[in-house]
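Problem: given the chain below (38 residues), write out its structure.
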Amino acid sequence: PRAVREIGVAWLDGHPDTPPVAAFKRFLLSRRGNLLPD
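Solution.
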């Protein structure tokens, strides 16, 4: 799971932030915040 997430983040970083991608990033960040409290 960690490797998949890192690949996803790298893929997102390499692509322009279209509205769906921006929404997906916000979703991932909210999930990460809930799953991995820092």
